[in-house]
Amino acid sequence: MNDEIGPGDSYTPMPGEPPRTPLPSHGPAPGSVATAVRLMLIRAALGVVSIIVVLATKDTLKAVIRAHNHTVGAANLDGLVNTAVTVGLVIGIIFIVLYVVLALQVRQAKNWARITTWVIAGLGVLSALGSLAQPEPAISRLVALISGILDIAIIVLLAQRPSNRYFRPTR
Predict the structure, then answer these.
(1) Inter-CA distances, 151 with 42, 46, 161, Å
(2) Are 67 and 135 a contacting pair, CB within 8 Å?
(3) Which among 89, 94, 158 has a CA at the least distance from the CA of 123?
(4) Which end of the chain has less neighbouring CB within 10 Å, N or C?
(5) Burial degree of 127 (CB within 10 A; 0-12, 13-18, 19+)
(6) Helix, strand, coil distribution of the chain in percent, nearest 5
């Protein structure tokens, strides 16, 4: 058997890689999305402020808890306050990271990030409402209220018609 190709034989080369086409672009983000991204980053910064407030008002939190719970002993009170502060810090850090990551993904028209942002912002609104009913220092309530208002604004901005068009899949 002869494997050589002669002058009269034709040779068909293997097909190459298809040409690379750039990913479809969503174009520039509409104002509603750009504003929502800015608010998400502001919300993350406010989370840092919130952590600082929690650490700075730990003694005030202890006094407020003591005033509302006369049956709690000193040892239990310290444990209660330390647990509350630790849980608050962990949740605060998680929210900060989530808001930054989601803001970057929302800017890139990732619809999953928009949906996740709605859920996280909705939890933030519930948290803000819940904090108004808790015995907290006034500054903590103020930060929670501002955070809740920002969360509502983010939800509304990402639900507007221009935002919906921006997150629609391109073809």
Answers:
(1) 10, 11, 18
(2) yes
(3) 94
(4) N
(5) middle
(6) 70, 0, 30
User: What is the total residue count of the chain?
Assistant: 171
**Model confidence pLDDT, tens digit, residues 10-57:** 666 666 666 665 555 677 889 999 999 999 999 999 999 989 988 888
Mean pLDDT (whole number) for 126-146: 86
Q: Which amino acid is at 55?
A: L
Q: Which of 102, 118, 126, 108 is nearest to 156 (CA)?
A: 118
* Lowest-confidence region among 67-71, 137-141, 159-163: 67-71
> Which residues are CB-contacts of 132 (< 8 A; sequence separation ≥ 6)?
141, 144, 145
Contacts of 163 (CB under 8 A, 6+ apart): 30, 32, 33, 36, 114, 157
Residues 144-170 have pLDDT tens digits of 899 999 999 999 999 999 999 999 887
The domain limits of the chain are: 31-166
